[in-house]
Design goal:
- The chain has 433 residues and is of the alpha/beta class.
- The chain folds into two domains: 291 residues, Mur-like, catalytic domain (UDP-N-acetylmuramoyl-L-alanine:D-glutamate ligase, 3-Layer(aba) Sandwich); 131 residues, Alpha-Beta Complex (Protein-Tyrosine Phosphatase, Chain A).
- Helices cover 41% and strands 15% of the residues.
- It is built from 15 helices and 17 strands.
- It starts with a helix and ends with a helix.
- The relative contact order is 0.11.
């Protein structure tokens, strides 16, 4: 199997869509000799911020000299971004070889009457197989959706994290915050410690109840004492922190923008402290501070300087849009903003537009070459209720120069609504560089 054939094989499974459940992934992993049992792991769930927590923790482990496997989704430009060891994405040849093994296992399962795994399940199995072959000391795993029935939830982790729970994926996870929190809390395991990001009361009650039933000890990012550097939190954030353990960090300087990143960093810090007590002694205060300061997580309030500046943010649900709105008001008030927006069909696009459109002088909606993506004409109709003069572009290639002209050299082009949109913009910028 070649690299291109590997990607085509995985893409062929995408038509199966999203099907929560653990039976398919468990059967597939059994045929692959259960690679997920060959390494310890950290499992991170939540609605928004889980990828940032993964990025912070991965960077901390790297600074501590621990060569960790990192599994995240989705990718922005290349599939290989999903499966990383230390800072190196899986190589094309390795991907092709492992994909062939996964394909053979799936075909054997089909012959035995087993249900075909989804794209995400096959990708998860491939990642576990890669980590096993490389004999990594630990993996950091981002839950794809939900938690209780997510393909990553076949591991028994050393510790878990749950970032803020918000309304998203309601057609699969439930129509209330409590129902969604029940799915997210499914990553908790008996006796396994967990770090919990800030939560609404309804979600917190569910998480506490689940943890109590399992005997899972919890620590809370909100219990960290935060002292901003200066009268207000700078951009990016710089602050001092004292954790619930009593350990103090005089100056933590984050590379990721937005006030919400303080709690994401605190959640990662709590997980790192737990790992430091669980056999990874090289994770000390210095490694934590350096790791937080060197984390990389593209497409999340990523500011690209130019004339005009570009702000890329994957904000793909109302909670993400709220963080983006707060950031623009706190740090870019008074600037001329040109907003480029696209969204998937399963997202509440009108709610998202209602939150962001009033901040923009210019609003341009567009679409992506994906079946899941909402069409530009539909987004334009929704936008008209929240902006006096929205326009549409047929593609990102058409939208970007229009938005740059609308913002002017001293303005700000904000591109948001979908990580897939951010990926398309990044591909275009690479092409033009």
């Amino acid at each position: 199997m070649t690299y291109r054939e590997a990607l085509a094989f995985l893409d062929s499974l995408d038509v199966l869509g999203i099907r929560p459940g653990l039976d398919r992934i468990a059967a597939l992993l059994a045929r692959l000799q259960d690679p997920q049992t060959s390494f310890p792991s950290v499992l991170i769930a939540g609605t928004n911020g889980k990828g940032s927590v993964v990025a912070y923790l991965a960077s901390i482990l790297r600074e501590a000299g621990v060569v960790a496997g990192i599994y995240t989704s989705p990718h922005l430009i290349r599939f290989e971004e999903r499966i990383v060891i230390d800072a190196a994405p899986i190589g094309p040849d390795e991907l092709a070889g492992l994909a062939a093994e996964v394909r053979d296992a799936i075909e054997a399962g089909r012959r035995a009457g087993e249900e075909t795994p989804t794209y995400f399940e096959a990708t998860t199995a491939l990642a576990f197989l890669h980590f096993k072959r490389r004999r990594i000391p630990i993996a950091v795993l981002e839950v794809g959706m939900g938690g209780r029935f997510d393909a990553t939830n076949v591991v028994t982790p050393l510790c878990c994290g749950i970032t803020p729970v918000a309304m998203d994926h309601t057609q699969w996870l439930g129509s209330t915050l409590a129902a969604i929190a029940t799915q997210k809390a499914g990553v908790l395991k008996p006796g396994v410690p967990a770090a919990i990001g800030p939560q609404d009361r309804e979600a917190l009650e569910v998480i506490r109840a689940e943890a109590a039933g399992l005997g899972s000890p919890l620590t809370f990012a909100s219990d960290c004492r935060i002292v901003p550097a200066g009268e207000r939190l700078p951009d990016p954030p710089v602050f001092g922190l004292t954790s619930p353990s009593g350990r103090g960090y005089d100056r933590l300087a984050l590379p990721l923008r937005g006030a919400h990143q303080v709690m994401n960093a605190a959640t990662a810090l709590l997980l790192a402290e737990t790992l430091g007590r669980s056999g990874f002694a090289s994770i000390d205060a210095d490694a934590i501070a350096r790791g937080l300061g060197r984390a990389v997580w593209p497409g999340r309030l990523e500011l690209l300087r130019g004339r005009p500046d570009l702000l890329l943010d994957g904000a793909h649900n109302p909670a993400g849009c709220a963080s983006l709105r707060a950031y623009l008001r706190d740090h870019h008030a008074g600037r001329r903003v040109a907003l480029v927006f696209a969204s998937m069909k399963d997202k509440p696009a009108e709610t998202m537009l209602a939150m962001l459109a009033p901040l923009a002088e210019s609003l341009l909606v567009t679409s992506l070459p994906l079946e899941r993506c909402e069409s530009a004409p539909v987004l334009l109709r929704l936008a008209r209720a929240h902006h006096p003069g929205p326009a549409e572009a047929s593609s990102v290639r058409e939208a970007l120069p229009i938005a740059r002209r609308a913002a002017g050299p001293d303005g700000l082009v904000v591109i948001c609504g979908s990580l897939y949109l951010i990926g398309e913009v990044k591909k275009l910028l690479l092409e033009q560089s």
